[in-house]
Structure formats: structure tokens, C-alpha cells
Model the fold of this input.
Amino acid sequence: MSESLLKVRDLKMHFPVKEGIFLRASKFNKAVDGVSLDIAPGETLGLVGESGCGKSTLGRCITRLYQPTAGSIEFRDQDITHLGSNALKPQRQHIQMIFQDPMESLNSRHTVGDIIQEPLIVQNIGDRASRAKRVLELLNIVGLPARSVTRYPFEFSGGQRQRIGIARALALNPKLVICDEPVSALDVSIQSQILNLLIELQQEFNLSYLFIAHDLAVVKHISDRIAIMYLGKIVESGRSEEIYRNAQHPYTQSLIAAIPVPDPHRKVQRQIISGDVPSPIAPPSGCTFHPRCPSAMSRCSQDIPHLDSPMTDKSHLVSCHLMD
Amino acid sequence: MLTLNPQTQKKLRRFRGIKRGYYSFLILVGLMLLTSIGELLVNNRALLVSYDDTWYFPTYADFHPGTDFGLTYGYETNYRDLQQTFEQADNGDFVIMPLIPYSAFENHAPGGIYKPLPPSLELKHYLGTDTTSRDILARLFYGTRIALMFSIAFMVWVYVIGISIGCAMGYFGGVFDLIFQRLIEIWSNIPFLYTVIIVFSVIPSTFAVATRIGILLTVMVLFSWPGMTYYMRTETYKEKTRDYISAARIIGASHSRIIFNHILPNVMSTLVTYMPFTIVGAIGAITALDFLGFGLPAPTPSLGELLKQGTANLRTAPWIVTSAFLTLVTLLTLVTFIGEAVRESFDPKKFTVYK
Done:
């Protein structure tokens, strides 16, 4: 396995739930509870899970929008978990983010030109003329006309706005881009355009993606490896084809069974999991999936399973007692 | 070159489209321009004195003793008398007086007894005089000017302090927010009126009038900024969690850049909407304080002081309260109309793309 660009080890993000008049933290929302993952240069790791499973929180921890409670984030062999804002600033050039809702993530009071060149201004790159040139170059890369520079975000369609967001993320020539559900707010017809753009950009600039999504079909299109998250933990991870062909965890199996297939005659045995995701404030004992698991055993509610590689493909990790 | 955001341009266009508010705005701006050159319109000093073929412009000069114009006294020239003297002498000298040839501080009692005179075209007291024979129109004019200047200064200070602290509370949150919230809660429980009474009974009357106005302004601002922090704090909290702020943080933007480039421009429209109403509140407050006798120190011309005189002499001199009341109502109506038009044209629901 090649040298990894990003190494996350046992990352925990516990948000305090404040109560009472003194706002004491009496409970913790364990949004991310012990996640380890690696991303190699030029690789895409798809991160999939239901709403509220902590996948976005994980992305925001890696970009240090949140200060993780425990664990470590290593980027190019440098531990960035506890860097102060001054030490972190040069590292920020290399880790950028694309957001879910492009309208929310673009300041509606700034022109597109201002938005795209802001990273360059903040990081003190180039003079006025070279920045203007770079903005045009970036607009060209993401497929927007040069006259967009003086326009405002609300004058664009959803897909175009997402292109603006991508141009901003690319402005600093990052190594790693966290894509936080970048297509789930877009029309289906636009989704594939944006996905194809992301794939082209990855090849052109040798980018690594952490691609967060709740839709396995979207992730399948773009990912080299996939990690499935449930309630703050990774329950299964492995190479993309391996996961689709040979999913082991009951949760992954039900997610894959839920992917719609464009064939009206195909009958599938749906594996429906009932109920909602339990509260991460008071997660179930043992395996957190056991209350919804179709094949739960008695030990599932007592012992906590650990990620293990029970398969012949050693990169395929599963966290389930069924594997023992 | 300042280019306005098309959304802002749209708002301004909408504001111009709301005729009532737009014309109120034009009238108020005109009024403010007029009062700013007030010394040329309402003054007991002449605009122009031509004496011995020399021209004098006493309006903004400091002092011309009567001897300058061949009179017998060494104190400040009475230009109205000078005008009559020149007319009688008829030797080419002349005096041009402003439209209203009285100052706001001058007791002009033709009979030598201080008493309210009814409006009189002949004496050029177009709205009469008050109980100490001062011209009411002059006092209304300068009273309006002081009320407007005072409330604009008040608004600026309340905004500067309220925005800074409110924004810091919302942006930094946590312990800082908690401490300031409790401080503000305690602070806003101190009764404003008693504080004003105590402060003004403590400071010596030897202080210059300008200093005393400054102290009054300070006290009023100190008691009014917490209201501003409530809006700013919640607005900042709201904006802070939006993704464009996250995007700015990811590129490494500093706190000051995020506050000044991102948060403040986005909460500006809310703040602009409150401005006219803050001014209405300030004019109302200062008039009420003047009416009670704890406001602007005498002999500063003020609407509240005229209202007080007027209500005290309602039967004998009804013209005092009438003109003061009408001026106050007009002023407040103008600002309220502007405020309503601003609020309507800045209504975010009209433009926002968010659902």
C-alpha cells in the first residue's frame, strides 16, 4: 500500500450537551466515536452513512472546523490535530472542502471573482494582476464563462454555483479535498456533470478526495475505496468493487439492496431495516446496530465488535460478530 | 470605485419606489441641509453690512462692536437697530438681515417686559415669542437641529458599541458571551431616569453647555447599547453557523476578516432597518427629558422645553405649544415614514433565494 496522505487514528468528536443554569456538560453527543482511516495520494475514499451518523462531522474535524475530542489527524506525516491557527494556516492550503449547499457556502454579498480569489488573498499568494489571471484560469477549469467574475452567486443555477465552490476549493492547489455531499443538493441531471468534473479534476491535478455521501450509487461512481459509517463508527470498509460484490456487514448489505436498479422485471429481496438511527447521545450497548440488525445475536447487545479483516482481501475490514 | 451589489441596488430602487418614504427622506435631508446653514437663515447677525463702502459679513465672524459701524457702544452690534439707523440716515449704507432676524438665545421684548408675544408679521416674530421673549421660530429651528444632531450622534454611538459587543458575543460565544449576557442583564436593571437625575444633580452647573450635552449623550448611550447587542448577537450566531463562514475558515481567514468581510455585510440590512426607529426613539427620549427638565441644559433651544412652557401657558399663549407640537409631530412622522419605507424595501423575504 502506498504512503498515505492523510492518516486519521481513533478520532473522536464528542459534543457536550449543556444543561441547567450553569450549562454544565452533563452528556456527550458522540458524533464521531473512534474512527481510523487512510487516504493515499490521488485516491478517493467514499464515506457513506445515514443522516446523523457523523460523516459530515468527521469531514469537518479533518479540516479542523471542529477541534476533535481525541485521536489524531496526520497530514503528510505532520500531526495537525492540535495546531494553533497560525501554524495551521499554511496547512490549510492543502486541505480544502466542497460543501453540500452551494448557496449557503458562497457569500451572497461577494462577486464570483471575490469569492474565488479570497483564498489567494488570505494566503498571500500573488499580486492583484496574477490573482485576477488565476481566477480566470480557475473559471475555465470548472467550465464557467470568464464574464462570471463580476456576477453574484444568486445569478447562477445550482450546478453552476457548485462549480464556483469547486473553483474556490481548487484555488490553492490542494492535495486533499473533502467533498461534503457535493451533489446531493443538485438535480439528478446536474449531479453526473459535477461528478464527472470532479473525476476529471482528480486526474488532472492528482487530487485525493474524501467523498461524503448518503447515496451508495453516487459513491460507486467515483470511489476507489468505500467506508460505511454507522453512529459515529466505521462498520465496514474496503475496495469499491469488493464492497459492492461482497458486503459482509448486515448494514452495508441493506444499503446495497436499497440501490435502485433500472430494470422493471428484476425482483430483489429487499432487506429492509426498520426504525431510525438511535441517538448518538445514548447509543445502544454492544454493537450499536443490534436493535435494527436482522441477524442480531444475544452477544451483539453485550460485546462491542471491532474492525477486523476476516476476508481473503485483507484491505476489507468489517466490524461484526457474524464474522467470528 | 464603489460598485453596489445588485441586491443592494434593487433595495435602493425599491426604496425610491415607495413614494411616501422617499419624499419624507428628501424633505428630511433638505431640512438637515437647511439647519446646517441655519446661521444664514435664522440669526440676529446681519448677512451683509455695507458701511462706508466696506462690506462686512458678520454671520460667521466672531464679534463686531457697535463702534465698527459708527455707533456709540462697544458691545456686540444690534444689527436690527443698525438697519433702521442706516435707513433713516439714507446715505448709501445698508444692512441685509436673514429671513428671521432673531437668534435663539436673544430676549427681544419691545416693551421691556418679558412676556409671550403672539405671532406678528410686523415684528417678524412669525410664530410669536416664548415666556422670556425669545423668538419661537428661531428656537424651534435650532431645537430641531440639535435634536437631529443629538439623535444621529446617539445612533452612531449606540451602533458602534452595540455592534462591536454584540458581534463579539455572538462570534466568540462561550464564556465571553455568558459573562456579557449577565452583565447586560444587571446593567439594564439600573433605572435610566434616576441615573440621569442623579448625574445632573451631581455635575456642577459651571460646566460648559457643550460638556453637559456630551454627558447627557454619554449617559443615554450607556443605557441604550444593550438593546443593539440583542439583535447583533443573534444575527451573528445565525450567520456564524452558515457554510460560507466555514468556507472562509477553511481557507485560513482571520477572525477580523470573517467579521468584517463576511458577517457584518450580511447583517447590515437588519441594522439599516433599525436606524430610523433608533432616531425616532432618541428624538422622543430627548424631548421627554427636556420636558421633565433633565434634558439638554438651559438655555439650549429644545422642543421639549418649548412644550413645557407651552403646557404651562396653555390659556395665555397657545401659540407656543401649537408650533412646538406640530414641529415634533412632523419630525417624528417624517422619520417614521422613512423607517417604514426602509423596512419594506429591505425586507429579506422579497429577495432571498433561500427557502
Chain B is about 60% helix and 5% strand. The mean pLDDT of chain B is 87. The domain at 6-34+138-346 of chain B is CATH 1.10.3720.10 (MetI-like fold). Chain B touches chain A through 23 residues (CB under 8 Å).
